[in-house]
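Our platform keeps sequence and structure together, in a single record for each protein. This encoding replaces a full spatial description with a residue-level series of whole-number codes. We quote a single record here, exactly as it is kept in our systems:
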Amino acid sequence: MRITTEEQLREVIDHPHPELRDKAITVIDEESARFLSAATFFLLATTAADGTVDVSPRGETPGAITVLDEKRLAFGDRPGNRRLDSFRNILQCPQIGMLFIVPGRDETLRVNGHASLHRDPDFTDAPLGVILEVDELFLHCGQSFRRGSVWDQSGWPSPATVPSFGAMIKSTGAARVRLAQLALAGADDAVRD
């Protein structure tokens, strides 16, 4: 049965404990600032005007996330694939979500808010920076990291079962060619009809 309402969803998943339901805060407290300064990896979730969602991984050195004040954090952009997916989305829809990760820690810090882009910012040596105004911030427990054996190698899949980067590139390239062939075949069929 497809679930289409929150009431149906609550039949499957009970309401959270009030302390968990109300755990989000709207400021960067002292301990959260310390966690942010230790984070070396984060996921940046953005949405385009058409509703398309993008999640981008970002690696940094400890201290690269700057807490500007209790409502704002900032980070610089590092060279990547230059597609600008996240930044184009921020221009269209500034609401973003971030998940901060500290190596070896199961707990993560989730931060949601409104982002803006800045050229030659003073908080980083990068030519482009992002400032996030915090709407909500909360700690996320480590159950998912423990279940996923993120830091425990004994739970990792065998390297032989995971395709290499090169194999993935080759496979997606073949898929693009096949999709183009199907599109051309469809266009030819439409012309004949």
